[in-house]
Write a structure and sequence with these properties.
The complex is a heterodimer of chains A (112) and B (113).
Chain A: E1 3-5, E2 9-13, E3 18-25, E4 32-37, E5 44-49, E6 53-57, E7 60-65, E8 70-75, E9 84-91, E10 100-102, E11 106-111
Parallel strand pairs in A: 2-11
Antiparallel strand pairs in A: 1-3, 3-8, 4-5, 4-9, 6-7, 7-8, 9-10, 9-11
Chain B: E1 4-7, E2 10-13, E3 19-25, E4 31-38, E5 42-51, E6 54-57, E7 65-70, E8 73-78, E9 87-94, E10 103-104, E11 108-112
The chains are: A mainly beta (112), B mainly beta (113).
Amino acid sequence: GQNIDQPTEMTATEGAIVQINCTYQTSGFNGLFWYQQHAGEAPTFLSYNVLDGLEEKGRFSSFLSRSKGYSYLLLKELQMKDSASYLCAVRDTSQAGTALIFGKGTTLSVSS
Amino acid sequence: DADVTQTPRNRITKTGKRIMLECSQTKGHDRMYWYRQDPGLGLRLIYYSFDVKDINKGEISDGYSVSRQAQAKFSLSLESAIPNQTALYFCATSQGSGANVLTFGAGSRLTVL
């Protein structure tokens, strides 16, 4: 089976740095994704990690450790518009078709 | 125009009614998916299709059926809607190569009374 855990809610202030953790247990693994979803809108792709290490893309970075079943999304210089849900998703190769399995999401609230 | 278009965007219906949610895409992707999203439960996969002749059940397919009418069209049907199918439904597409990133439609909010 598969299990993906991430915190339900987090709060932070403008200009700060926040780290959203994700742990996963899957029978097979072929990539971890982070998506951003504003309330009532579609999820949008943020990052993809398939090898261990850090991927940096502007203010957002994502890290993966396959041996630990662990990833984090790092958001720097937080802005009010970063208030959203952040979804961790894993491609589990043991599942037929290897479709993405999503965690329940972390709702981030950024205050001024 | 959106790359992935879902219709209707909002629908209120009654228990027992048949409902179809439609999805069309202009991205030329071969893979299409239907997810539902419920508060506190996240996105859960209902059905997916890797090409026109390929249909697969996801995590929560009971009570749903799908049709892949063409590469660009993938519809989701609720044969006899029930209140616990009230949710936000998302269609998504992916290319099936490389990172295989999902692109989502804007969502269809369904309320079953």
